[in-house]
Amino acid sequence: RLKKFFDNDEQESAYEFIRALCQSLPESVIKNYSVEDCINQINKLNSDRLKLLRKYAEVEFLFWYEHWKYGQMCLNKATHSGEDLIYLLNSECLSIYQKRMNSRNILFNGDPDVCLGNSILYIKSVLNGKTRGIGGRCNDIAQKFGGRIKFSAYINAHQECVHALWLLIMLDSGVNCEVARLIPWDCIGVPTEQGNCIINFGKKNRAGGKLITDELPVEENTEQKLTVPKAIMKYKEMAAAIHELAEVEFKNTLLLHLYKNKVEVFKDATGRRWLKNFISRHKDLLGLKILPSMIRPSFILAIQYNNDNNLASAQAFADHDSPTTTLIH
């Protein structure tokens, strides 16, 4: 009944929105909606979902940041230098028995924090912090401390942390998934007098090499525990070591991950898979059908809705030269 009020080229997307509404509101209520009521509910649903995405992206980022910080605290408790660990555990001058006893005493027995610190330092010294595909003693270390992925996150940013920052950047700035994915390492600019921070997203090829920037608040509002500028700075702490190991073509990129023992930018398909997994981890988001490419249009729609449906406001936030482009979104 409601679908017929939309233009032909809008009916398919309108139908999907109405179906989504029916999942969150009683069918008896939906049937009595006017078109205006329907549009208002669509806008409210859109805004609420963006808030939920941000809430859980923030939760995941902070969880893995605290996990990494704990690893760094343990690293400071290491009882040997990296060079000493390599000698005591790997030297051909020592017998197999001696090395096994050293391994047991230094990495596995005693204070768990000290053992974790020694283990982190050993992996950093022997494998540059790369833990993918490790075997033997290295595999034993990983299993002792929660498995390879969890242990690796004591050393480098967990992939869920990388994904969470990607989401936060898109949700707070409204840039598209590609621009956010390729944001440069040196993206943080100087603070403004208003307490904001200039974020440099690099150049947009489709806009003739136009530099994309945004101004985001440094301090949190009442609904936030973390702003994007602070998240980027925390992430750079976690990613500093792995950034040094990145392939030359990715050296200037912020969001990196370890894939098949290579440090590189994650692919579009990887981002879509990460988002799908992210949705599945949170009860409030289960069943939400969303792709990374939908976040920017949803952001623009929310801006328009929160500014009395003023298209000019949405166009300004989206930095579009033409309102037609904004309408397409």
Assembly state (oligomeric): single chain
Record field, number of beta strands: 5
Which segments are poorly predicted (pLDDT under 50) over 5 or more consecutive residues? 310-318, 320-329
Characterize the overall form. Answer: elongated
> Major sheet, described briefly?
3 strands, antiparallel
Structural class, by secondary structure, is mainly alpha
Distance between the termini: 24 Å
Order of helices and strands: HHHHHHHHHHEEEHEEHHHH
Percent helix: 55-70%
C-alpha-based Rg, rounded = 24 Å
Strand content: 5-15%
Strand order of the largest sheet: 1-2-3
Q: Name the average pLDDT.
A: 83
Instruction: Enumerate how many helices there are, as a single number.
Output: 15
Describe the protein's architecture and organization.
It is a single chain. With 329 residues, the protein is mainly alpha-helical. Helix content is 57%, strand content 9%. It has helices at residues 11-24, 27-31, 35-75, 82-90, 96-108, 112-127, 137-144, 148-152, 159-173, 177-181, 228-244, 268-280, 295-305, 311-318, 323-328; strands at residues 188-191, 196-204, 210-217, 256-259, 262-265. A three-stranded antiparallel beta sheet has the order 1-2-3, covered by helices on one side. The longest helix is centred in the N-terminal third of the chain and has 41 residues, at 35-75. The two termini are 24 Å apart. The model is unreliable at 310-318 and 320-329 (pLDDT under 50).
